Amino acid sequence: MTGLQDRLTPAQVEEFGRELDALRQRIVDDLGEEDLDYIRKIIKTQRALEVTGRGLLFAGFLPPAWLAGVAALAGAKILDNMEIGHNVMHGQYDWTRIPELSSQRFEWDTVAPAENWRHSHNYIHHTYTNIVDKDRDVGYGILRMDPAQKWHPYYLGNPVYATLLALLFQWGVMLHDLEVDRVVKGERTWAENVPVLRRIVRKASRQIGKDYVLFPLLTGPLAPLTLLGNASANLVRNLWAFSIIFCGHFPADVESFTEEETENETRGQWYLRQILGSANITGSPLFHILSGNLSHQIEHHLFPDLPARRYPQIAGEVREICERYGLPYHTGPLHKQLWSVAKKIARLALPGKPAAPATVDPERQLRAA
Fold it and tell me: Entry's InterPro entries (predicted)?
């Protein structure tokens, strides 16, 4: 936990919030054809990769063709989920009024229904980021990812659960919306889950039918190889999405919060919590695209409804603002962030006390005043 209220004075927090509001408004005022051209190009690339991948699997008896097909299909699924689906469903392109870019109409290539995701992710996670017992993405109801989560012998399996979640990530995200842990505690009834479960069954049936029945059957005698190719592409997408998402939320320096310290939160305080509760991943422009620009998780948590292609453009300014206010800006390469997350998962499998709150640099705080 962190001493959230001790980071800045009330006046500093509100000035900090006004600076970020001004930055956001400047980007909103600049949205236009370049942003639309960008997402259309990404969609075109995604569709080309999917057609190429499925076409190559028709020649799956040739190992190079099979491998290339899996790679192309995995790339298509990654682009669909990360740079297109996740971002479109955040409303980043609602301003275009184009139906296929509507946050309320978009459906992605994964077993998790978009309607469920919009509630659990867009609302719950982004409203209550890293508030223990409020943000259900802290541990996904499966893992102990914060020392404030009461330890239980069940958590000795933390590394095993994390590995399984990484391998089956789309299924974990799908089941996340059932909130089974809350049902077990008596905080939610199975009757409340009926609409959620209906959407899950409907969406998962379509995905299973597409990847594991229809397309394999279309390749005739190569059906087993095609089924394996589709499963492999899904596995690659699962591992990639898990890595990017966990590296943006759970490296060692990322902080968590209590419900009490976030009561009656102002806009500036909300921004402050997003900064302290997120981490970035450094990499190439292609890496950022494949991550859905969630490699800029800090900027995404500050401005979830801005087109993600804008995050690299404003990252330097956000970092500079943080430095002036004496605030951390957590970032690092993928391998470093992954190692940090892995160590946290292993460490929190064992009982332990919360880490001491981070200290504030008085000189930097005065410079920001």
Answer: FA_desaturase_dom (IPR005804), Fatty_acid_desaturase (IPR012171)
- Among residues 241, 246, 215, 238, the alpha carbon closest in space to that of 228 is found at 215
Euclidean distance between CA atoms 368 and 355, whole angstroms: 27
Predicted pLDDT at 67: 98
pLDDT value of position 4: 59
DSSP 8-state class, residue 131: B
- How far apart CA 249 and CA 169 sit, in angstroms, is 16
Two tokens at 345? 């998962």
DSSP 8-state symbol, 31: -
Measuring CA to CA, how many Å separate 6 from each of 3, 13, 59, 365? 5, 10, 62, 11
| Chain segment 187-217, per-residue pLDDT in tens | 888 888 999 999 999 999 999 999 999 999 9
Q: Pick from 160, 156, 161: which is nearest to 351 by CA?
A: 156
Helical spans, DSSP H, in the chain: 10-30, 33-56, 63-78, 87-89, 114-117, 126-127, 158-167, 169-176, 180-184, 194-209, 215-218, 223-249, 267-276, 285-290, 297-302, 311-324, 334-347, 362-368
Q: Which amino acid is at 176?
A: H
Distance CA 345, CA 159 (A): 6
What does residue 323 show for φ and ψ, rounded to 5 degrees?
A: -65, -40
Phi/psi of residue 282, nearest 5 degrees:
-80, 155
At 263, give phi and psi (nearest 5°).
-65, 145
CA dihedral 216, 217, 223, 228 (to 10 degrees): 20
Q: How far apart are CA 325 and CA 368, in angstroms?
A: 5
Q: What is the Cα–Cα distance from 264 to 149, expressed in whole angstroms? A: 23
Give the pLDDT confidence score for residue 5 in this predicted structure. Answer: 61
Residues of the chain whose pLDDT is less than 70? Answer: 1-6, 353-369
- Give me the pLDDT at residue 195, please: 93
d(CA 250, CA 277): 8
Asked if residues 96 and 36 have their Cβ atoms less than 8 Å apart, the reply is yes
Distance CA 65, CA 72 (A): 10
